[in-house]
Amino acid sequence: MSVNVGDTDDLMMVDRPASRRGPLFPYLMFAPAFILIAGVSFIPIGYAIVQSFFRSSTLSLGRFVGLDNYSDFLFTLNGAETLKNSLIFVAGTVVLAVPFGFALALVLNRPLPFRGVFRTILITPWLVSNLVGALLWAWIGNPQYGLAPYLLDKVGITMPNIITNSTAAMTSVIVASVWAATPLVMVFVLAALQSVPGDLIEAARIDGASAWRRFWKITVPLVRNTTMMTIVLTSLHAFKSVEIILVMTSGGPNGATETMATKVFHEAFTLLRIGVGSAGAVMIFLLNLMFTMAFVRVLRTEHGA
To answer: Residue 233 and which of 65, 92, 172, 292 are 20 to 30 A apart at CA?
Structure first.
């Protein structure tokens, strides 16, 4: 089979640009995405840090006040209480959502009939916006016409009022947050479970290992990194959650469910104290950053070991 000169020249023209791209070509390809991310993430974060040192009620910088906005947010505006509420809300979400999501992933990893249908149904809360989910749970827990108080009353149980009872209010927003976060954990863990080598499980079974031992000694170590990643993602999502609390309790009763994120929203967009709100947002960013760095350090330590 012969190749004419024209075809050879065409092949050379295809290969030639790749050799002439130069060392800057990868950076030029990366530049549009970097500019977009910088425009919607890095620049606003940087401006919020700058604005947190100024007393302003608009997006323009006002009078420089140093660390006064930070002290106001933490000490004069019950910021320490909102930090405690945030930690309770995040801990409750993670402690419940991660085991539930892990358990659902284990069930859906088995060859069940209509498994695809169940996966679609269980992932729905993740696809629904937080606002819609919050409205749904606010209706379910409403003390006057909610579904949960009605069903509990049928069995002789009086449900505490989520509007006036502090414990019931915090419990209700945690339940709504767990409902929204569990599918994310389920999807990640299920993907990790499907990557576990079946031959390894079968070999352990043939060697006489029990189902529990196979799970604890083989499955758990192989999905540990994915599980830890879901813990971080769930924590970050819960720490900055605003819609669920605003819709269901508005931070009440008496600030019992007001978190740092909802306080930032209140200070910046209700009271127009942009500087104080920016200070709170920066503190949330730093807390999330420290938590993520601690997670990365744990992973590096495990891989180094």
So the answer is: 172
Q: Where are the domains of the chain?
A: 62-304
pLDDT number for residue 169 = 93
User: Do 291 and 90 meet the contact criterion of CB atoms below 8 Å apart?
Assistant: no
- Contact, 250 vs 117, CB < 8 A? no
**What distance in Å separates the CA atoms of residue 290 and residue 292, rounded to the nearest whole number?**
5
Residue 219: in which H helix or E strand, if any? none
Looking at residue 280, its amino acid is G
- Distance set, CA 76 to CA 35, 72, 173 (Å): 39, 5, 26
284 neighbors 239 (Cβ within 8 angstroms): yes
CA end-to-end distance (rounded Å), the chain: 58
Residue 97 has pLDDT above 50, yes or no: yes
287 CB-near residues (< 8 Å, 6+ apart) = 239
User: How many distinct helices (H) and strands (E) make up the chain?
Assistant: 15, 2
pLDDT digits (tens, 9 = 90+) for 199-224: 888 888 888 888 888 888 888 888 98
pTM score of the predicted model: 0.84
Q: What is the distance, to the nearest Å, from the Cα of residue 240 to the centroid of all Cα atoms in its chain?
A: 8
**Distance between CA 141 and CA 250 in Å, rounded?**
14
Q: What are phi and psi of 61, to 5 degrees?
A: -75, 140
d(CA 73, CA 264): 9
The burial of 295, by beta-carbon neighbours within 10 Å (0-12 exposed, 13-18 middle, 19 or more buried), is given as middle
Say yes or no: domain 62-304 is CATH 3.40.50.720.
no
Euclidean distance between CA atoms 31 and 222, whole angstroms: 36
What pLDDT is recorded for position 62?
A: 81
